[in-house]
Amino acid sequence: MPSSKLRIPYDSPLFIIFAVVTAVWYSNSAGFHTFPRLTHHGEDALGSYIGQEHPHLRRTFTTGRCLVLRSRDVLLDPPTPMISQELEIQILGWTRTPFAISGGGHALNPGFSSTTGIHVSMSGFDTLEWHKDENTIDIGAGLRWDHVFDYLNPEGYTVVGGRVRGVGVAGFILGGGLSFKTNQLGLTIDTLKSCEVVLPNGTFVRASHDENPDLFFGLKGGFNNFGIVTKFTLGVYPQTDIWGGTVILAEKDIGGAHDAVVKFADTVTDPKATLNIIYEYAEGELNAIVILFYDAPSPPPGLFDELLSIPNGKVTAASMSFATLLSAGQPRNTPRRIQDVAPVQKYTPKLLDSIANETKHWGSFLEKNHSGHFFDYVVEVFLPTYYSHGTESAWPPSRDPASVHYPVNIAFAWYEKAHDQAVWDALKASVAKLRADAEAEGQRIENAELYPNLVIEGTPLERMYGKNLPRLRALRDVYDPERVMDLTGGWRF
Ligand SMILES: Cc1cc2nc3c(=O)[nH]c(=O)nc-3n(C[C@H](O)[C@H](O)[C@H](O)COP(=O)(O)OP(=O)(O)OC[C@H]3O[C@@H](n4cnc5c(N)ncnc54)[C@H](O)[C@@H]3O)c2cc1C
């Protein structure tokens, strides 16, 4: 066992970073799941690398005392060939300053996975290990869903994961996870078997239904409040080709689709079927894209007929591999983007009209006046049973059928910083309008427990975690009594 030369203070973010490195080394080498205080070269030794052309230094940054290292090269004492080759840590600072953990980096809230302090990128945690006998897969916390699907799908298997390429597994899972499989199998956290976590005190633990079940509860929806997750083990499920399609509607035809959409949402019972609609305003035009998905090479006769025959809809539908469908929704790059959620208990033609109107209203206003780029309102249609597949979790705080609602996910993208406040205000106003419209229809959404992966920064924690919040805070006091994780961005218990 390496010997300790210098101890980094317990509450230093660096402590956690080193702990991650060491934990992975132990887990990869000897199969230990706990270890005494980590050992490393220490601050002086690491500091001495700064400014030198150390052969292991992969990149230096021009501002501040920043460097990017491969962990095996610097952090262990003695350096050992046993350290995981895949592990890479980025350190973008060297003080007890705020730090950020990023998985895929897709959180749209400022500072959730970015920082001017120390940046812990999980990108080096990129291994996949499929346990065929157990129908599970270990997924490194730095991977994106594409990696997982590209690995499993050609073999005829899948996980309950993302719906477009590029999104990270870590934040997606730690926030809940809405998937094309959610009607059948639940949220991604409902298929989570275990996690490996480095706690703020440097202890490396597993959390599962049987091991540290309280921590497991907290991680399922609780993001980075309890430490850094290095590995997720998810259930693996068979995957055939799927049937998918889009019906694209120009502005004048959108209203004509709403009866068919509502009828589908009200009557569908087949959990293999899902429906989303993206209302989008961009470059002076409003369009709607109805996205149809069926989890088999072809849907039952008649299931989507009314949607496929919406007047003037441009239909593209085919049987395809799941990976092909995933590629259809490439995320777009925009310098500035925020999102928020309007909760809905039931879609009605009037409410869908209102969503379309909001898209056009704010899209044209912000495009004209505030450097707007594109404006999406994504209507999610799930079965009312979609919360019913899992056991208790940080989010959703209640799985009672009466608590079920659907998120309308609203994302605004624009270019110039000078317009941040105007766009922010517009988004808030639009969410308020849609909530008011739903409430005017008698929908009980005042206490809807909002999906933390999609809501805007500043949303009170009670609005997401509801009755679970006291329990989560008590759990935080157990696992992070020194409040180390308060130095990171994200939802802070
Ligand atoms: C284009 C796009 C499509 C999306 N599609 C869906 C969808 O279909 N379904 C859905 O449910 N959501 C979807 N989302 C939302 C998505 O789930 C969240 O943005 C999610 O947090 C992204 O995960 P990430 O790892 O990429 O994020 P990051 O920004 O890297 O992380 C998000 C949060 O998790 C924390 N975190 C990351 N890694 C770790 C770790 N290893 N340990 C502890 N904490 C960590 C971060 O600190 C941060 O607070 C989508 C978002 C985008 C932008």
From TrEMBL:
It comes from the Eukaryota. SUPFAM superfamilies: FAD-binding/transporter-associated domain-like. Keywords: FAD, Flavoprotein, Oxidoreductase. GO terms for molecular function: FAD binding; oxidoreductase activity. InterPro entries: FAD-bd_PCMH (IPR016166), FAD-bd_PCMH-like_sf (IPR036318), FAD-bd_PCMH_sub2 (IPR016169), FAD-linked_Oxidoreductase (IPR050416), Oxid_FAD_bind_N (IPR006094). The keyword Phosphoprotein does not apply. Residues 68-239 form the FAD-binding PCMH-type domain. Signal peptide: none annotated. Belongs to the oxygen-dependent FAD-linked oxidoreductase family. This is FAD-binding PCMH-type domain-containing protein. It comes from Cyclocybe aegerita.
